Each structure stands twice: as structure tokens, then as C-alpha cells.
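EI: anyone free to look at a 303-residue chain?
SC: sure, send it
EI:
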Amino acid sequence: MSEKPKIPVIAGIIRRLSGYGPGLRTVVFFKGCPMACPDCARPELKYAQEQLLYNPVYCTGCRACVSACARGLHTFDDDCVHHVKLSGCDACFACVRACKTGALTACGEEYSPEGLGKVLLSAYAQQQVFGAGVTLSGGEPALYSGFVEELCRYCKGYGMHTAVHTRGCVSPAQLLAAARAADLVLFELSAYSISLHERLTGINNVRILSNLRMLGAQGLHIHIKIPVIPGVNDQAEQAAGLADILCTLNGIERVELAARIPAPRTELPDGIRPPLMRAWDGAQALKAYATPFIIRSLPVHIL
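SC: here you go
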């Protein structure tokens, strides 16, 4: 009897997104990622478990959460400011059920491959006129390669185009299984330099680049996504190094460059200071960054 796949926690499903493969996509966001990228817009996806999220903008100070939480994690100070000890939460979400304003929300839900497939099929039926498909993103969906295989099999059975968005920071076996299951691989690269990559994300890119070379030898359809962050990874040598690797690989159908900024509250490593955005000409910088790819006849696209 085959072993059941590891079940991921899904943080959300968003319809009609662009930039996650061809056409408008329904994107599934998996929780769990070993990297800590400075441009990550959803840091809650780093954690694999369900978790409590708090948005103070919507808190009215009603204190319903105080009564609901058996662990006493919600307190209010003399100025009626709500303090939440998120680290002590056991994800019972009693406070979420008590909160009527949406200040407290539960992030994450488990699905079976078939159960999630049915949700995606419903979305596909409503928007297939737009040439839609499904993209599994995150987080790192390849951490759940068995689940990805079953889900992609289900989706393909109904004619849905499938893509896996990966950072490649998993075992070769996991990545290969997830990549082969999908119609398209979106492979995101943060930096060429080993030291810079480790400073930015917390891990080096030796395995990542090795995994990319492995996929390039498999006859797969691959799109490369490179976030270009001012003053962080936009150096000419980073672009040239990545271009040198990509021009030796098969299956690279598209290289996408997109300007990014560090996410709010991100603490960058020592010595890395992005310039003020008003002083950074994104279009010109991306054009300069693209030059090594163009010289090497790679299909580069500036987003």
C-alpha cells in the first residue's frame, strides 16, 4: 500500500492573479519555507503550522478575546492598546471566533489533495475563459511533493494547466517529484553569490543551484523569476553570474525580472542598505540588470 502524502497547511487561495505563470492563475499558498527572503510579502508563510494573525487596524478594544483565551495571551494596557503573545498560542482559535471585527484571524487550513482539487476545479470553471491555470506557491510547495503529485494529477484530469513555484531549497528527490508533476516550473532565484544568498535568506544556494542544474537536464518547461532589490542584490556581478548559469541549461523558456523592495519591518543583514526608493530608477536598474541575460540570448522579460 502506498504511503499517504504529507498534508500541508494552506494559507490561502487567490483567484485571477497574474505573474504566476501564463494567463490568469488561481494561486495556492502553501505554508512552510526554510528561507527568510527580505522581499517576502507574507512572512507568515515561513511557518508550516496554522497560526494566529493579529491586525491592530481592525481592533476596537472590545476585549472579547480576553475572555475567550484560556492561556491569557491577550492583554490591554492603560491606553487600551491590545497586546498579543503570539508565541504562546496553541492555535485553538477561540479568540478568532470571539472577535467580530476581523482583527484576529486564523492563517492556515488543511485539505486533502482531492478536497483542494475540487476547490480549484470550481475556480477554474468560473474563469477558464481567461486561459486560467493553477499555480502552487508558498512558502515552498515542493516540501510536500507527494501531495503536489496527487493534486497536479487531479487538476490535469480536468484539463487545468499546472505550475509549481519553487525556491529549490529542498532535497533533489522532493523537487524532481514536484517539478515532474506540473506542466511548468517557476524557479525563483535570489542571488548568485553564495555568501550574499546566505546573508539574505539564511541559507546558502549551493543546493539550490545544483537543483536548478538538475531540472535543466530533465526536459522540463522552466521559467526563472528573479526579484531585483535595490542595493541588496542588484549588482552587475550577481546578474552576470546567474546569466552564466542559465545559458548552459535546457528548458529555460523565460527569465522574469521584477523590482522588489524589502518587506515592511524586514531587518537586512549588516552592510546592506537599500537606497530610498525615490532615488532608485527601477526601470533603468532593471534594464541594466537584464543586459547580461540579453547578451547571452536568454529570453528575459522585465515586469
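EI: Residues 268-279 have pLDDT under 50 and may be disordered.
SC: 👍
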